[in-house]
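Note to self: keep these together.
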Amino acid sequence: MTQKGSDYSASSIQALEGLEAVRRRPGMYIGSTDVKGLHHLVWEVIDNSIDEHLAGHCSHILVSILQDNSIRVEDNGRGIPVDMHEKLQKSALEVVMTVLHAGGKFDKDSYKVSGGLHGVGVSCVNALSAYLRVEVRREGKVYMQEYERGKPRENVREIGETASRGTTVIFRPDEEIFETLVYSFETLAQRIRELSFLNNGLTIYLKDEREGQQREEKFFSEGGLREFVKFLDQGRPPLTENPIYVTGKEENIEVEIAMQYNTGFQENVLSYVNNIYTREGGTHLSGYRRALARVFKQYGDSNGFFSKLKMEISGEDFREGLTAIVSVKVPEPQFKGQTKGELGNSEVVGVVSRIVGDALMAFLEQNPKEARRIIDKVILAATARHAARKAREMVQRKNVLTGGGLPGKLADCSSRSAEESELFLVEGDSAGGTAKQGRNRNYQAILPLRGKILNVEKALEYKIYENEEIKNMFTALGVHIIEDEDGQRKLNIDKLRYHKVVIMCDADVDGSHITTLILTFFYRYMVELIQNGHLYIARPPLYLVKKGKEAKYAWNEKERIAIVEELGKGKEDSVHIQRYKGLGEMNAEQLWETTMDPSRRILSRVDIEDASNASYYFSILMGEDVPPRRDFIEKHAVYANIDI
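Structure:
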């Protein structure tokens, strides 16, 4: 007997034509339909203009947020071809805008290197836009075509004459697809700033034309990666007067690297392939690290700098306090995974290693004083690393993984399922006690943190493992640090005991500072938890508004005004308003229903949207250098009112 819905035949197989697949499964093409996916549309269009710049045909790009949150991207490149496509018998412009895996990027005579290799970029933008208009200025003529949700309204037509050239794309994202349609000027500015550093000589303008938000910013970098390194290192005093700069070309692979040692303890390296950020690194990063360790080790040994050391120097020691940008241009890059997060081309290792090795050797021989300063830092790093390893082993020996006990302050949950378990890192013993009373003991664990934890941005590593609060976090979470064969460290989270780690601090200035200290620790030493989506920040309410027996909570000033309007008919003196300064002002029941109850609480998941900016902000806010921090605070003081 055949049940309804179980008839699986040829009629069950759907063949999606044109751009239907993109609209049906947008996440496969742009990652998500949230605010990140919304901004990804802009990157796809800008990438086409950047590729024109890489090919030597574009010097200016103008990106505008229009009044209705549409986006306009205009360049002075060659302009998309408009002549008839022989095979498809339609304008090449329409082919580019409506056919997946179509474009000039596959023709190596048109583009030697390209970021958008899959040929789905601008056609995906078209598919996911309620409206899109493209204008091409080419060979003295202006051509135009308009689309609705990826479908042309009409054929490509000539609409005028011009002395200029280039392409303009205007698109309005589809409200049927995206969760939000509001663009962020700051998010666009951060990525465009990065692109200007990576493409020196290219001018990019960003303009906001929305009512009450009008502003314009120009991005241009003459120094390229050298300026990028200095920008990232603003909060750290440098060891050398100028960044070490490496450039070269071999086997059609272009290598450009800038690096600078500072007085800090963190390695901060960002790697790119054809302007694409490679989060997991790859063969270009391996080649760079191999050359760095080889050349510095050879230089130190040949000059007798390491002869009196009682410990072995490792590759890791040469990278402490080093900020570097590794950028390569590869004609046919092979990425591991769909996210383009790791470069896989094996030939790139040797090319990068040789080019970097030759440049570093020349730098060391020509700059003996700066070379000695770097070697002295390497020796200090090796000494500190051995001390840190001993301290780390002490922590991990006491870890639950090796049979030790859990921290005495930890109120664990009864569940042994990491997927459903939550750990709240709570500011102070008092709030921790309240949280222990108010929690759901089945799946919620509480670890109170006393005072402000160590600022890991300014501390030697071995000091970090001696800090009681940090040791407790390692032990409670059940994670430990391991080293690979290259001495590269990473966090082993195979035995992670909680898949939600929630930072819960007071809604005041001290609470914000403690949250930032904890975030700095996780970003520098447990970044894998952030990358895997395990770290959250709790948002306790700011106000309790009561009238008689009726009470409501407000998380911001706007909500407070609305509740006063509802309960007190707009009269504040007719209601009782309590401003929560800290978690300790709530009783256990209030803390549960506002901040810990999964059905009502507000949690913000911590994500790394832009690695270069994340590292920059941590170094500015938590580093040694005061002037950059003061400048940052003054510039962003308008956002400091936490009640809004």
